[in-house]
Write a structure and sequence with these properties.
The protein is α/β, with parallel strands linked by helices. It contains 22 helices and 15 strands. Helix 3 packs across helix 4 (66-76), helix 17 (379-393) packs across helix 18 and helix 19 crosses helix 21 (455-466). The chain binds pyridoxal-5'-phosphate.
């Protein structure tokens, strides 16, 4: 399979694309041609999660043998996932909640990051590449921990994670700071996720630095969703859940469905979009943002605008979506414009230099935008949605899933389109216990309580009152000793890597 950069200036095979992460022209890799599913829906409905994952990986990474991929899939999706079949689907009316948070770190990032280290090691082996891999990761909270878990003590790798010190939940921070492993490096930064992400991207294209590393036989790699090796495993759960809805009699074979995704870096929803290009019958993509609603505005107006005078970056109760620059939208621009890399380059340089771009004059992207419904939920709507879901259905959801459901309800009201819809449920409510408790019982009173209670107290309160199980990865977190780290500035990211890794 040949991969090309969205900016037209780089090519790679699967193995090179997985190891490189970002293309040398700063673009993102996509296959020259998106493979087709060619699937018999009734056969799909009988497949288990691992079989679907194997099928999807085989289509994208055809340099690997079926035996190699089978082995990898078996190791990745083993008993670490405490669900009946890796994921669960809970149905409420026409809404099917696809729960992707039964892995070690209790967020959907485990779905891809449990498998990425194996894909990287195998790629290296097949390319006879014996350099050490140094994974650089920017995180808005969940990728960091999932990547640390995935790469901890994996021989021949070092992993460095950068997270916004003031932009993650207490539970997310504790998860990262208590990670064991001799190859683990964690850096809290003063700025927000966007700074961490652009810092990492800039290190990736720093040729002088890479030369220096090459001399020491070290290669940089990415665990963010800019890496195609992270996106492809995510396609599997869309295809799998379509089969399960058929099996359960919720939809007919070939019936179109909608997909609603709480969106940050646009990776998860893009994997759904790729599933559609492969032939999965998806009608509408409901792209849900929190108050950092650049994306929903983009789908409504065609203008992607992060100019400071227009918008302030907000810290919200759905921190993993506190992002203004959604990297993977670049892949959508490429796909929607039928591979127009000059157009993509123009958009990206306008974003970098001017802080915005518009796609009004392209007929294709205009048409493409109508496949998406963009909406956002504010902090209050998130809390109200959590309460509504619990009171009405005894169903506990986290803040990100609440953003998604809230926007889905708006879509229903506006469109009257009640097609079966997959609501992508991205994290356990126990990762954001304070906000969830606040929605359920304590709205408006948290300020008084916040002095005495911490996230772990809220976890207990949540469990006492709902009896919903606490994920195994979070249970004894409170008693672990966190690393004591100094917060750094984004401009010092490179020197921090040099100091701690070289
Ligand atoms: C990462 C994350 C998101 C956003 O996913 P993207 O692929 O970045 O759009 C949403 N919810 C949770 C809980 C996450 O960890």
């Amino acid at each position: 399979m040949l991969y090309i950069s969205t900016r037209g200036g780089d090519k790679a095979n699967s193995m090179e694309a997985i190891l490189k992460g970002i293309a040398s022209d700063k673009g993102l890799f996509l296959p020259v041609e998106i493979p087709k599913l060619n699937m018999d829906w009734s056969a799909l409905s009988k497949m288990c999660y691992k079989q679907v994952a194997l099928k999807i990986l085989g289509l994208y990474f055809d340099e690997f043998t079926t035996e190699e991929l089978t082995q990898i899939v078996d190791m990745a999706y083993d008993s670490k996932f405490k669900a009946s079949d890796v994921v669960e689907i809970k149905t409420i009316g026409n809404a099917h909640f696809l729960e992707l948070y039964y892995g070690k770190t209790a967020a959907f990032k485990d779905m891809a990051l449990s498998i990425l280290p194996y894909l990287m090691k195998l790629s290296q082996k097949k390319l006879n590449d014996d350099s050490k891999i140094c994974i650089l990761t920017a995180t808005s909270g969940d990728t960091g921990k999932a990547a640390l878990e995935g790469f901890s003590n994996v021989s021949g790798t070092e992993i460095a994670v950068f997270y916004p010190k003031h932009g993650v939940s207490k539970v997310q921070e504790m998860q990262m700071l208590t990670q064991s492993g001799d190859n683990v490096h964690i850096f809290p930064i003063e700025e927000n996720f966007d700074s961490a992400q652009s810092g990492v991207k800039n290190i990736f294209i720093d040729e002088e630095f890479k030369e220096k590393l090459k001399f020491k036989k070290i290669k940089l790699a990415s665990a963010n969703s800019i890496n195609i090796g992270r996106l492809v495993p995510q396609i599997a759960y869309y295809v799998y859940s379509y089969g399960k809805l058929i099996e359960k009699g919720k939809i007919q074979q070939g019936e179109p469905i909608n997909i609603a995704v709480p969106t940050g870096n646009f990776g998860n929803i893009l994997a759904g979009f790729m599933a559609k290009l492969m032939g999965l019958p998806i009608k509408k993509f409901i792209c849900a943002s929190n108050e950092n609603n650049v994306l929903s505005e983009f789908f409504n107006t065609g203008l992607y605008d992060i100019r400071k005078e227009k918008r302030v970056f907000r810290l919200t109760n759905s921190p993993s979506m506190d992002i203004l620059i959604s990297s993977n939208l670049e892949r959508w621009l490429y796909l929607a414009s039928k591979g127009d890399s000059d157009f993509v380059k123009e958009c990206m340089s306008s974003l970098e230099l001017l802080g915005f771009y518009g796609v009004f004059d392209s007929e294709e992207t205009l048409k493409g935008r109508t496949e998406f419904y963009g909406g956002f939920a504010d902090e209050n709507q998130v809390l109200d949605t959590i309460k509504y879901m619990w009171d009405k259905n005894q169903y506990l959801i986290d803040t990100h899933t609440a953003v998604c459901y809230s926007v889905y309800e708006d879509y229903l009201k506006n469109s009257k389109d009640s097609s079966p819809t997959i609501i992508v449920s991205t994290a356990s409510p126990y990762k954001f216990p304070k906000a969830v408790c606040s929605g359920l019982w304590l709205k408006g009173t948290l300020e008084e309580n916040s002095q005495v209670l911490d996230d772990f107290d809220y976890m207990d309160i949540l469990f006492e009152n709902t009896k919903v199980d606490i994920p195994y990865g979070l249970k004894d977190l409170r008693n672990k000793k966190p690393r004591d780290l100094k917060t750094i500035k984004a401009i010092d990211m490179k020197s921090s890597i040099i100091n701690s890794l070289l």
